[in-house]
Amino acid sequence: MKLKKTRKARNCYSCKSSISKGDLYGQKSIALGTKVNGQTETAEGMYTVVHQMRIPVDMCQVCLGVK
Ligand SMILES: [Zn+2]
Prior knowledge:
The chain is mainly β. It contains 1 helix and 5 strands, in the order βββββα.
């Protein structure tokens, strides 16, 4: 996961904490809608084709597991 420096204030999608200007953040694709049983979870860098829309969300370093 490559982190970027944000040029504007953002909010972490996961923990809802704010990411201030100049802080590092990452973007992750999440699926919109409810997960269906038997659907494959997203694996490292690979996305299974599902009948869902994927949108990029902002996440802080903590939620991305970056130290
Ligand atoms: Zn977070």
